[in-house]
Each structure stands twice: as C-alpha cells, then as structure tokens.
Write a structure and sequence with these properties.
By secondary structure, this protein is α/β, with parallel strands linked by helices. It has 12 helices and 13 strands. It has helices at 60-77, 83-93, 98-116, 120-123, 143-155, 170-180, 196-208, 223-232, 248-252, 263-266, 269-281, 295-303, and strands at residues 6-23, 26-40, 45-50, 136-138, 160-164, 185-189, 211-215, 237-239, 258-262, 285-289, 310-311, 326-327, 349-350. The strands form 3 sheets. It has an 8-stranded parallel beta sheet with strand order 4-5-6-7-8-9-10-11. Strands 1-2-3 form a 3-stranded antiparallel beta sheet. Helix 1 (60-77) crosses helix 3 (98-116), helix 5 (143-155) packs parallel to helix 6 (170-180) and helix 7 (196-208) runs parallel beside helix 8 (223-232). It is globular. The two termini are 28 Å apart. The relative contact order is 0.15.
C-alpha cells in the first residue's frame, strides 16, 4: 500500500461567521484558514486545514510561509502511512507553527485512511459510539442577544452550551441563559479574564445555576493563580490556554480537573493522542476543543471523540451558511455521528 510519490498543495481561504464571535480578548468576524491537500500517484487526495490563532503567535501568513518546507518533507517521505516519520520530520523542520503542522498531519491521516478504505476512527481501533456530544458556544454579546442565541440553539436541538464570559455582567448573562435553557448542560469559559478570588466567588453562584465546569478562568501566565483558583473553586476547572503541548500536561495536573486539548495548539493528530494518554495517566479528564475551523479540520477532531470525556467541536457550526467549502462528520444537535460517515478518511469532502 505504500506510495511511490506524493504531490501537495495548499490554498488560503477566508470563512465568514454567521455572527460576530466575541470572547474576553476580542471579536472575530471571519476565520482565516489554510487548506492543505496531499495526493498520491493514483489521484486519491487527503485534506486538512490550519486555523491559526494569533494568541499562540500564528497567523495565516505564517502558515503560508512555512507550509512549503513542511510539505517538502511529506513529498520526501513519499508514503502517507509513514505517519510518525512525517510528523517527526515536520517538527524538526518547523519547531513552532503548530496549526501549519496540524493541517499537514490531518491531510496525511485522511489520505492514509482513505487508501485503506476505512474511516479514521477505525484506523485507530476506536468505538464510534463512545464519542460524547459536542457543546455549542454562545459568544459574548449584550445580554438579550445572548438570551436569543441561546433560545435559537435550544430550538436547534443543542443540549450542551458553552458560554463565553469575562464581562462586568457575567451573572446577569448566565441567569438569562439559564432562563432560556432551563434543561441544558451549561459550561462557561472566561478565557483568562478572572482572578483566583473572582473565580472562587463566581464558582458558587455558577454552581447554583447548574454550571458543569469553568474553563480557563486565570491567565496562563499565572500558574500559581490557576492552582489557587482550582483549590478554591467549588466547580471543576478546565485548562485550555495553560495546556498547549504534551509537556504542559504534568504542569497542569495539580491545578485543574480537565485538560482541554486543541489540534491547532499541539501540532498534529499523533501528538493529540499522546496528550490524551498523558492526561489520563495524570488523573485528568480530557476535552477536545477547537478554533473556528473548516470541516477539513473539525472532521479529524471528531474521530478523537471516543477518547474524550467532553467535546467542544463546534468551530464549523459557527460559520455562515455555505461558507465552509467542506462537509464533515454529521453532528445533528451536537451529536458526533461517526457511524453516519459514508466515506473513508476523516469524512471531510468538498461540497
């Protein structure tokens, strides 16, 4: 099954969002993604996508700048099944730029699974029925708009919602959302906007409102503060910005309950699986999150679903209708339906 040659290409795309998406750090109106394709000599093509975040020092410009070097390594190896070798070579050539490396990793995994005629989860030997439902995110807005977006999400069937917080009216927002979604599972994400004292205080009324856990309340630059918040909060704490690479897992193990991984932070699918196992070894639960991403990337994350406790893989659902050039894994009402895929690979397919 090994290939004798591979050809590669990439293109930059701007994907408009359905609504402006605001978190405590700023607002996004369009997602800049870079689509990667890896084709074998028989014309079979694997696709992936980079969704870079300036917060981690990466932009679409930096992705485009390093992709020729990364894809040269793929072509040198020439075998899409040599996944470990390709990811190791990419890491040696480009130490940073994890979103760029991730796009290539996804494309090569997609091609490898397609050549074997199986969905990616089967290549990994996972049970598709074990994937958790994904949450749907409500970005920061005025309170009434957040209430309306919540009602619309509930009407669309989403039963798990994640609220972006970090304002001077956080309690007002959560109370309004809870009123609009009395039966939904609620999670909140402060994106580093709180202090330890604030986290402890807010965790009490958040618990009263039935919130499940708090994501990254403390700046990643303050690990002692994260530990303080973790020890004082009455709700579980998930680490996102504090959990970027495999090396971060032991560092956060005594200051959170949940490790929130993202493919675009860690640099590839093999590294993400290593992080899952490392988190388990340290007694942590595991969530996989995302940026605002095309299905060319989200689909791959969905295949990690059976390894997770929680999923936040709504990045493609936040895009404007028809903006994504790819279809992905079916996610009716937030349910990651891996068994509903009717094609091999990640399930991403051009529209």
């Amino acid at each position: 099954m090994s290939a004798t040659s591979l050809s590669t290409s990439f293109e930059r795309v701007s994907l408009p969002l359905e609504h402006d998406f605001t978190i405590s750090r700023g607002t996004t109106v369009a997602a800049e993604n870079v689509i990667v394709r890896v084709e074998d000599e028989g014309g079979m093509t694997g696709v992936g996508a980079a969704a870079p975040s300036a917060h981690y020092g990466e932009t679409a410009d930096t992705v485009v700048a390093v992709l020729p070097d990364l894809l040269a390594e793929v072509e040198t190896v020439g075998d899409p099944h040599a996944l470990a070798e390709i990811e190791e070579r990419m890491r040696r050539v480009v130490a940073d730029n994890p979103a760029a490396r991730c796009a290539v990793s996804i494309a090569v995994h997609d091609l490898a699974a397609k050549r074997l005629g199986v969905p990616l989860y089967r290549l990994w030997g996972l049970d598709p029925g074990d994937a958790p439902d994904s949450s749907y995110t409500i970005g920061i807005d005025d309170t009434e708009t957040m209430r309306e977006k919540t009602a619309a999400a509930v009407e669309a069937g989403y039963s798990t919602l994640k609220l972006k917080l970090g304002t001077d009216r956080d309690r007002e927002v959560v109370e309004a959302v809870r009123e609009a979604a009395p039966d939904a599972t609620l999670r909140v994400d402060a994106n580093e906007a709180w202090t330890p004292r604030e986290t402890a205080r807010k965790s009490e009324w958040l618990a009263d409102l039935g919130v499940e856990f708090i994501e990254q309340p403390i700046p990643a630059s303050d690990p002692a503060g994260l530990r303080d918040a973790f020890e004082r909060s009455v709700l579980p704490i998930a680490a996102d910005e504090s959990c970027v690479t495999l090396a971060d897992i032991p560092r956060i193990a005594d200051r959170c309950d949940i490790a929130n991984l993202k493919l675009m932070k860690c640099g590839g699918l093999l590294e993400a699986r290593r992080m899952v196992h490392a988190a388990r070894a340290h007694g942590l639960e595991v969530m996989l999150g995302c940026m605002v991403e095309s299905n060319a990337a989200i689909a791959a994350g969905c295949h990690l679903g059976p390894l997770l406790d929680y999923a936040d893989l709504d990045g493609s659902l936040l895009l404007a209708d028809g903006a994504d050039p790819f279809e992905g894994v079916p996610m009716p009402e937030g349910r990651i339906d891996l068994e509903g895929i009717d094609r091999a690979g990640t399930g991403a397919a051009e529209r």
